[in-house]
Amino acid sequence: PAGLWAVPFARDGIAVIVHPSNRIANLTLAQVRSLYRGEIQDWKALGGPALETSVISREDGSGTRNAFEAAVMGGERVTFNAQVMPNTQAVVQQVRRHPEAVGYVSMAAITDTVRAVPVEGLLPTPAAVRDGAYHLTRHLYLFAPTNPTPDVSRFLDFIRSAEGQAIIGRRHVSLR
To answer: Are 26 and 117 spatial neighbours (Cβ–Cβ below 8 Å)?
Structure first.
């Protein structure tokens, strides 16, 4: 928007997550799209358990949702049967509690209570996100006024410094 300056500060991978008991080995982008269109309604069709699928998505306005839909859905709508969650933690909790569920979250939100599924044979590891091999990636941005205050300028300088990027690298992929 006018009057704002966008500052990229990290790269992120969007993980497709399932319940740990779902041992599906890999999904293609086309399969993820079919799941989220509501075309695949049983995990057995993908080599998983004989269990109906439950699609978990994010709310309108979510940056993760926007990036997921741009990378996966190709302009098509997510099924109307999707359960819409208000935040990342709610997606993780829903998938953790329901063996039939599939969701998507930032790679920083993956816990041992859910399992990331390889997409096109790759997990959202820092190396795969950094080199662009993993398909579901995005840049993360901070927005600041075009003429930031001195405090904001110092913060932006810190985020882009080696020290700031090292902190970011604990949960996301740094730009350095």
So the answer is: yes
